[in-house]
UniProtKB/TrEMBL annotation:
One of its GO terms (cellular component) is membrane. Signal peptide: none annotated. It is found in: Membrane. It comes from Stenotrophomonas tumulicola. This is DMT family transporter.
């Protein structure tokens, strides 16, 4: 008899948590846009990685016996590929284009993950998913040729697409080399490794001028909320509803990213951005159909 109330509870809790996670990750692009002019991409990413790792560190300590030395041979490169490099690319793009651009490019992660699994890991892709990839890439082309306030954003789009490509590669590496590890602990390990990769660049590029309070607030929120706590929420969702359904949060991130940037810092949302977003999100939706 208790199963029915629990099922009802899960039914309302899941869409609420997916929406909240989409809003948090959508906020991350706004926070980067505000903070990166003061910090620069390297220092900002180092703050984000360190704070995110610290939030998750108790989980790693609790499960430390499951992380022998040989595990770190994969954890270290995965941290570089799945966190350090894409975070820097998105931060670099945030210096040069509206927050919505990075948020839209981020949606390509699902498509890149399928493409890399097909090219390098022998997974089947199917005609429908192949066509979805083509449509998604056409959306990137539309976005790259757009102009905002008369300025070209092509370089920022390329950086965002490359970051999503690295995420797609990281997803495949995680799937093959981190299976069986506690997810939150594994995330802490990869974020910690990523922070060590970034440390030399952060130290040599640390801002010389005083960083404003608003930039610090955005950097802290980016690390604590959008990285550490968001990872916890995402892994909880994966455990409850599975990775496929949890990945539907991908559809919400660009919507929240564009809406928050327009609402709080007045960034425009152009027709080309809407068209590119529709092409990319539509292709993701088609590729996800069972």
């Amino acid at each position: 008899m208790s199963a029915v109330p629990q099922a009802v509870a899960r039914d309302w809790r899941t869409p609420l948590e997916l929406t909240l996670l989409g809003a948090i990750w959508g906020c991350s692009f706004l926070f980067m846009r505000v903070a990166v002019p003061s910090f620069g991409p390297y220092a900002l990413v180092e703050v984000r990685l360190v704070l995110g790792a610290l939030v998750l560190l108790p989980f790693l300590w609790q499960s430390r016996s499951q992380f022998p030395a040989r595990r770190w041979l994969w954890l270290a490169p995965i941290g570089l590929i799945n966190s350090a490099l894409p975070f820097v690319l998105f931060a670099w793009a945030a210096e040069r284009a509206p927050a919505a651009i990075g948020a839209i490019c981020n949606a390509m992660t699902v498509l890149f993950a399928a493409l890399i699994a097909f090219l390098f890991f022998g997974e089947k892709i199917g005609v429908r998913r192949a066509l979805a990839l083509l449509v998604g890439f056409s959306g990137v082309v539309v976005l790259a040729t757009a102009k905002v306030a008369g300025l070209s954003i092509g370089a920022a789009v390329v950086a965002g697409a490359l970051a999503s490509l690295l995420y797609g590669l990281g997803v495949n590496l995680v799937k093959r080399h981190m299976t069986g590890l506690p997810p939150a602990a594994a995330a802490a390990a990869t974020l910690g490794c990523a922070s060590l990769w970034m440390l030399p660049m952060a130290l040599t590029h640390w801002p010389q001028a005083s960083v404003p309070g608003a930039a610090w607030a955005c950097a802290v929120a980016l690390g604590v909320v959008c990285t550490g706590l968001a990872f916890l929420m995402f892994y909880r969702l994966i455990g409850r509803i599975g990775p496929s359904r949890a990945s539907t949060v991908t559809y919400l991130v660009p919507l929240f990213g564009a809406a928050f940037a327009w609402l709080f810092i007045g960034e425009p949302v152009t027709l080309q951005m809407l068209l590119a977003g529709a092409l990319i999100l539509g292709s993701v939706a088609v590729s996800q159909r069972s």
